[in-house]
Design brief:
Aspartate Aminotransferase, domain 2; 2 domains; 12% strand; seven-stranded mixed beta sheet; disordered N terminus; 18 helices; Aspartate Aminotransferase, domain 1
């Protein structure tokens, strides 16, 4: 049974005679929006308090499908990684044989390696660029992953998650005083990019992913968007690519990546390669390929144009411990690698990192554990591979199940979920729903998402928070609820949607 959505928002708390009001704040911050944690989540927290107080609602629990936060929905951390962190956090255990015997020898060995390379322990500041022992592990990982030559640990920065790295790059590259700089960003996009554009007084220059062809991207579309920005006098500084995609879940093909690199090189754009979902690919005929591998391969090409683009393009690549099968969102660990970046630019990035002294040490070590798993053939490796396979296998099954369920619903269409942790289906809403949304003062997708929440307890994000073509409506949902609960979540969403469509098809 459908209930009417309660749209009232709580009044902001604060003293009536406060000396500092919103008008006194940084107006770029006031204007920034981050849809993943916005109105829908705020309402869910009110509903959670009602449930906690024993109130009866149409559902028994809130299901947070609004954000890629795997462990909040039951994903277990990897045993090896947590065991090493526990020993490094409490190094006295490494000097007590009774404690050391509780851990496999490869865990003790890794913990001793880290503690011997971090003077003062994890409670001490590190080099602002990050621990050298971990940056070397990252460089080794990149070399092994791509197979196109060595990576330089001096070109790697360890950060508090990939988001902190992207924020550093925006701060370094954007001249906020001009109000004229811009960045090419995919639509749909992860709201970090639009929020940072607002915070830095920059233009978000949209290029559109092709939904009808699986959210693909071509160099021609990037060139179209860039040409349009130039007619407006915008100085476009960089091109952001999210691969695999968020919120769309696509995984780019190499031929399209080559075209994108050519455009970036020709136009003098810094290519920002957001690759945090590189372990989250769920189809047999598509493998993740890093932009670094594409660029280095192009640089060695016999095709002169490709070689020139590969040798000259400027690129920054990002990765994180928050996604993949690691899922350590709260630990906040990530890195970015510089390619063809001017030493003066790097020096300013280092200066910016120094202002914060360093990223957190648990996050830095978690990056090392992500890129350097336990040695093959050990007891820890056996457990690691089982845990990895179980997590990725379950994600693949949940993705397939959700894709099929969404495509079975009237007025809904979902592209193949080839990567990441999300579905971004389109919805054709009946005229009655559009009229009800307008009357409520909401966009149609916000109206729909609030109704979903009020009736099912499922928290999703309206497509308008990511950007979408005019006249289309979407929402983003994760497929992270535990596999044992996924059928129930899908059934609740399906029953709601059918009832919603029936109700509002009769309204006008």
């Amino acid at each position: 049974m459908l209930t009417d959505t309660m749209f009232a928002c709580p009044a902001a708390a604060g003293a009536a005679d406060a000396a500092t009001t919103e008008a006194d704040l940084n107006q770029w911050l006031v204007g920034a929006e981050y849809a993943v944690r916005g109105e829908i989540l705020d309402r869910s927290e009110v509903l959670q308090k009602q449930l906690d107080a024993g109130e009866k609602l149409p559902f028994e629990k809130i299901v947070a499908c609004n954000i890629g936060n795997p462990q909040a929905l039951g994903q277990k951390p990897l045993s090896f990684n947590r065991q090493v962190l526990s020993l490094v956090t409490n190094p006295d255990m490494l000097t007590d044989s009774s404690f050391k015997e509780l851990y496999p020898p490869e865990v003790v060995e890794r913990a001793e390696k880290y503690t011997s390379n971090i003077g003062g322990g994890i409670g001490a500041y590190t080099n602002s660029q990050g621990l050298s022992v971990v940056r070397q592990e990252v460089a080794d990982f990149i070399e092994a992953r791509d197979g196109v030559g060595p990576a330089d640990p001096e070109s790697i920065f360890l950060t508090d998650g990939a988001s902190a790295g992207v924020r550093m790059v925006y701060t370094t590259m954007i001249d906020s005083s001009s109000g004229n700089d811009g960045l090419l960003v995919p639509i749909p996009q992860y709201p970090l990019y639009s929020a940072l554009a607002t915070l830095h007084n920059a233009h978000l220059v949209p290029y559109y992913l092709d939904e009808e062809h699986g959210w693909t991207l071509t160099g021609a579309e990037v060139e179209r968007a860039l040409a349009e920005a130039k007619t407006k006098g915008i100085k476009v500084r960089a091109l952001a690519i999210i691969n695999p995609g968020n919120p769309t879940g696509q995984c780019l093909e190499e031929k399209d990546m080559v075209d994108i690199v050519k455009v970036a090189a020709k136009e003098g754009l810094v290519l920002l390669a957001d690759e945090v979902y590189q372990e989250n690919v769920y189809v047999e005929d598509r493998n993740f390929i890093s932009f670094r591998k594409v660029v280095k391969t192009m640089a060695a090409s016999s095709d002169a144009a490709e070689a020139e683009a590969g040798k000259t393009v400027e690129m920054i690549s990002f990765h994180s411990v928050s996604k993949g099968f690691i899922g350590e969102c709260g630990i906040r660990g990530g890195y970015f690698e510089l390619y063809n970046i001017d030493p003066v630019v790097k020096a300013n990035l280092y200066k910016l990192a120094s202002i914060s002294l360093c990223s957190n040490t648990h996050g830095q070590l978690s990056v090392g554990l992500m890129v350097n798993p336990p040695p093959a053939g050990t007891k820890s490796d056996d457990m690691y591979q089982k845990e990895k396979a179980a997590t990725l296998g379950s994600l693949k099954r949940r993705a397939s199940k959700l894709e099929a369920a969404l495509n079975s619903l009237p007025g809904m269409s979902c592209q193949p979920l080839t990567g990441s942790m999300y579905a971004f289906p389109s919805i054709t809403l009946p005229a009655g729903a559009l009229a009800a949304a307008k009357e409520a003062g909401k966009t149609a997708d916000v109206f729909y998402a609030l109704q979903v929440l009020e009736n099912t307890g499922i928290v999703m994000v309206p497509g308008s928070g990511f950007g979408q073509k005019d006249g289309t409506w979407h929402f983003r949902t994760t497929f992270l609820p535990p596999e044992s609960e996924m059928d129930g979540v899908i059934e609740r969403l399906g029953a709601f949607h059918i009832g919603f469509m029936e109700k509002y098809s009769k309204e006008l």
